[in-house]
Amino acid sequence: MAERSWFIIRVELAGRVDEELHPSPGRDFLVSGGHSLLELAVAIDTGFARWDLGHLHLFRFPAGAEYVLGGGEEGEDTPSTESTRLGLLGLTKGTEFEYVFDLGDEWVHRCEVRAVDVDPESEFGDEPLAPVPLFGWGDIPDQYGRSTPDD
User: Contact 84/67 with Cβ under 8 angstroms?
Assistant: First the structure.
């Protein structure tokens, strides 16, 4: 896929390590093939109201491919989310993958490419500089399970 291709990627928050969410809240994002996985991660974190961003993240793709913030541990050959462009991943309509935020709490997001070769001007009105949400639904849980400022 060329870096100038545009995708709509649906992201649903499945839950975290000890809790599944039913129904799953979600967001549809407009993303360019030129955007990095890090840029998609930032859009997802913003779209799901993350405020403590001092956590690692990773993407898991079919056939076991993983991309990690900063790459893997020293001596590992894990590609980084900063340098991996979506247009180089061979995404097609129906491709599914996971985004995991905070490798301790493991907030798991199911992602699916819903459309390829979309026109950003008809979807968004312009070509956005970074991935943007187009549509969203559901209740977003607090990152740490807080329901009041005193929790």
Answer: yes
